[in-house]
Every structure is written in C-alpha cells, then in structure tokens.
Design goal:
The protein is an alpha/beta fold and 529 residues long. Helices cover 24% and strands 33% of the residues. Strands 2, 3, 5, 6 and 8 form a five-stranded antiparallel beta sheet that branches. α4 links the parallel β20 and β21. It is globular, with a radius of gyration of 24 Å.
Length: 529
C-alpha cells in the first residue's frame, strides 16, 4: 500500500547514540550522519507513552526518495508499533506509541534523515479530536484517544499534488483482548472522503499509511459495521510493506530457492494494463511477474526489485520488459544488461497492442480471454484461469472492441474466446465470445472461479480496489502446487455473498492464500475466509 522499502541488511548496533547511552536511554537522536542513510539504531528503552519525531530530506537525491522506519519490538510484544513509511522530496512528523521495553529502529532510506525518540506522559485524548498529515506526516501513528460506545471517524485525503492516484489507509489499533472488528478506510484515488462508524469502548490509536495529505476527525454516534461469518479455511497471508514489496514476497514464496527462475517479467507498477496481459506470459517463461515504478515516476529500477531479480534469476537469463520506453525507462534495460542479463522488450503502440504482442510471444494460443482495458478487476480474475488453460489475455476498449484486438481475433477465427465481464465490459465488445461474469466485480471473480475452478482445493484472495496484489498473486495461483482461482474481496467484512457462496459450495477446498497486508485486506476478512 503506502510506498516504502521492505528489507535492510543488518548493520552493527554500536553506532553512537547522540544524547545518551545505547541501552537504557529514554531520549535520544539518531541521524543519517551517524548511521548512514540505511541502518539499525542501538537499542533504547521506553516505559508507557513515547514518541518518535522524524524528518527526512531528499533535496540532494535529485528526486522523490523512500524513507521507512521499522520499530523492532521486544520478543513476545503484541503491540503494533508502526514507523513512518514515506516517499517524497522531504517530510516530517511525529508518531505516538504506548508500549514498554527495549526497542531499536531499522531505517531504510535513500535520503538524509533525523529521528528523536523521547518519553511522553500525555494522557489519552477524549472522544473528539482532529489529526492531520500536517501534524503527523503523510504516514504515521496518532496519539491514543478514548471512546465509549458509538463513535465515528470522518476522513478525507487529497492526492492532487501527488501527480497520480495515491493510497490512503487507516488501521484502528484496538485495546488488548478487544474482539470487535474496527476497520478503517482503504482507498486508492486522487482524493476522497467518508465517515466510518464504530460501536466499541476503550483506548484506541490510528496507524495511517498514505501517499497524500489527509485529515481525520473523531466524534459522534453511529451504527456498528456488519460482521460476516465465512467458511473458516486455513489461510496464509503473503505480503510486503507496499505493493512492490508484496510482489517481491510472492516471488519469494513462488521461488524460495535462489536461482530457480528461468526468466523474469517486469512491468510498470503505476498502471495495470501491461502487467495484466503479462501474467500468463510470466508463468509461460517460468518466472515471477515483478513491478517497478513507470517512466513517469522514476527512470531507475526499484533497488528492491533489482535485488530480487539477482536472487531469483541467474546471470545470463532474460528479463522481459513489458511496454515501451514511455512505460519503463530504457535506463532499466541498461542497468539489467550491466548486471549480466539479457533484456527483451515486449511492446506495442498502446496497451491493446502490447497485449497482442504478448499473445504472440505466447505462441498465439488457441484460447483467448478478453477483458476491458479500462479497469483491472475482470482481468485480475482471468490471470490464473488463462494460465491453467494455456490462454492469453487481450484487452477491449470497454464495450468497444480495440482495433488491435479485433485484428488479432480476425486473424485467428478458430480461437475459443471468453469474455470476462458483462455487457458493460468485455462481453459488450465481443457478444460472440463465451460470457463469464457476475453482477459486480466480486461476483465476476466468483463466476470465473466457478467456470474454470469448480473443484479447486486452494484459492487466492486479494483486494478488488487495487490491482498490484492480485496481479502478482494471480501468477502464483496459476502455477503448480497452488493452482486455484483469484477471488476479489473488500478491505473489510462482510465477504461478498458470491465469494462466500463459492467457497462454501466447493467441497474440495482445503486452504487459501491472501495477498496483501492488513492495510489492504483486514484481519477480519482473513478470519471470515
């Protein structure tokens, strides 16, 4: 979800502590001058309420940079202590914690930074209050607040200065032993607002992960959110700190042994079309589908992705890059070639032509899945189905057939065609195809599951509000050892009725995988699955 980096090599714990000794100190400042842009701080101790005031500055980096802090907690500590996770030119904020023990911080940054930890004796705030990104930072933790009975969270976010759609999610940290499902908003867009309602009593705090400015106001009576029972199957969650991190975690689950991929498929992370068609291609060439920021966001390969390519693919292997230079910078080809890899572009003049180029790379399979290229949900469901049937995914221009897709289908008239999505989507563009769809995006994913996986023993699930998690997860669900459908779910319960019905109706079902972290799909959904 929110942007950031997902791993860091351990550095020595003997860095100087600015204002106190390494252990037993309650107040101290760490900086990139002492520790380096990325590294681990010494341990420090805290009792009760404490704060982490942070800032970072990427002015010398030349572009927006990542700044991420992981709070390393004592063994057995169940409190959720989350650090900031930023991408920008600069920023600052204060995160709030209530926890006792010896802690340290793992910092992953591309820029200069400073962190001050200090105790805070401020009591929890009352049931009303407003928090903003101007106070806390675009991503961070609020102070504690107390609520009794019904209360609301009115929220808004504004990504107009971000340059594209941004993530905004809020995790409600509940008192220990509190079994109520208090789920916050989970949004992707250029901006939005809403009010979430709760019925719960205790001392709470909020963890915000955002790429944009936001505001939250707590107050007022409300009606509690609905709950949803589910089939209760064993479910394994696979995720990273952000969308790219989740794709890396899926790659590591798919290829746990280093050097066992025979290729890698690379697509842009900020737009879905190329990567959707690339799912079956990744399975065909025997490699993971990885993503990195598009050329409009970055001219370089995400360093985490580079590390994973080097782990999973031996030197001399091929990295297939989906899309032209406007999709992914040619600097990425140069970087990979410098590491000893062969790069091959698979691209067309637009996303429709790129999908056709991918179908041709697949050897012009005789099964075609058509899905709208104007949204991503239908094609997400199609990825594992296309893999297991040896098919390709082509894109329609909504209810209008794209000329490139029409030309390809005209040249292959005997192909079996499935329209994933109804008359307002791909089936509207190709009424002669076999229609597979439901009343909404969730029901369409269930219809794909019923049609192509009527007796699956495993399933995959991911949010239907974003494409990244389900995209990489779809490749995982189409490969040996865990073949099954990709089901789309809401960030919080209840489960869509069509999804619950499919899972209950498949008597062969034994287990599942949930792709994406708790901020993408809540623990209540995992429990319901």
């Amino acid at each position: 979800m929110a942007t950031g980096l997902c791993s860091v090599a351990f550095l020595s714990s003997f860095w100087a502590f600015a204002t106190a000794s390494a252990a037993g100190a309650d107040t101290g400042t760490y900086t990139s001058t002492q520790i380096g842009t990325s590294g681990d701080t010494p341990q420090f101790s805290q009792t009760g309420n404490w704060t982490m005031a942070w800032s970072y500055n990427c002015s010398s980096f030349g572009s927006a940079g990542n700044f991420s802090v992981t709070v390393n907690q004592p063994s057995g500590d169940l409190t959720e202590d989350n650090g900031p996770n930023e991408l920008g030119l600069s920023g600052s904020g204060t995160d709030y914690y209530t926890d006792t023990g010896a802690f340290s911080l793992s910092v992953i940054s591309e820029c200069d930074w400073s962190i001050t930890v200090s105790p805070s004796s401020a009591p929890p705030q009352g049931g009303s209050g407003t928090y903003t990104s101007a106070e806390i930072g675009s991503a961070g933790n609020t102070p504690q607040f107390s609520e009794t009975g019904n209360w609301t969270m009115a929220w808004s976010y504004d990504c107009s200065s971000f340059g594209s759609a941004g993530n905004f999610s809020v995790d409600v940290i509940q008192p220990a032993g509190d079994l109520a499902d208090d789920v916050g908003p989970n949004e992707l867009g250029t901006g939005g607002s809403g009010t979430d309602s709760y019925s719960d009593t205790g001392v709470f705090s909020l963890v915000i992960n955002s790429e944009c400015a936001w505001s939250i106001t707590l107050n007022g009576p409300s009606t509690p959110p609905p709950a949803s029972p589910g089939p209760g199957l064993p479910v394994q969650r696979i995720y990273g700190q952000d969308a790219i991190g989740t794709s890396l975690a899926i790659s590591q689950a798919e290829f746990p042994t280093s050097g066992t991929a025979t290729a890698v498929v690379l697509a842009r992370s900020d737009y879905f079309a190329d990567a959707l068609a690339g799912g079956p291609f990744a399975a065909k060439v025997g490699g993971p589908l990885l993503t990195t920021p598009g050329a409009s966001m970055s001219t370089t390969l995400d360093p985490r992705v580079q590390t994973e390519i080097q782990r999973v693919l031996p030197a001399g292997g091929t990295v297939y890059i989906l899309g032209g230079d406007l999709a992914l910078s040619p600097n990425i080809d140069t970087t990979l070639q410098g590491l000893g890899y062969v790069t091959q572009r698979v691209a067309g003049a637009d996303e429709y032509a790129t999908a056709v180029a991918i179908a041709e790379q697949l050897g012009n399979p005789t099964t075609i899945f058509e899905a709208t290229g104007l949204s991503f949900q239908d094609a997400l469901s199609a990825v594992p189905a296309a893999i297991t049937t040896g098919g390709a995914i082509l894109l329609t221009n909504g209810t209008t057939q794209a000329p490139e897709t029409a030309a390809y289908l005209g040249a292959h008239p005997s192909d079996t065609r499935y329209a994933i999505g109804g008359p307002l989507a791909a089936y509207g563009a190709d009424p002669s195809a076999n229609p597979v769809y439901g009343q909404d995006l969730f029901a369409t994913s269930a219809a794909v599951a019923t049609t192509f996986f009527p007796e699956a023993s495993t399933f995959g699930a991911a949010t239907g509000l974003n494409f990244s998690d389900a995209l990489a997860g779809g490749v995982f669900m189409g490969t040996a050892g865990h073949v099954g459908p990709m089901l789309l779910v809401e960030p919080s319960v209840p489960l869509p009725p069509s999804i619950a019905s499919y899972l209950v109706g498949d008597t062969q079902m034994l287990n599942g995988y949930l792709f994406g972290g708790p901020l993408a799909v809540g623990s209540d959904v995992m429990a319901a699955l």
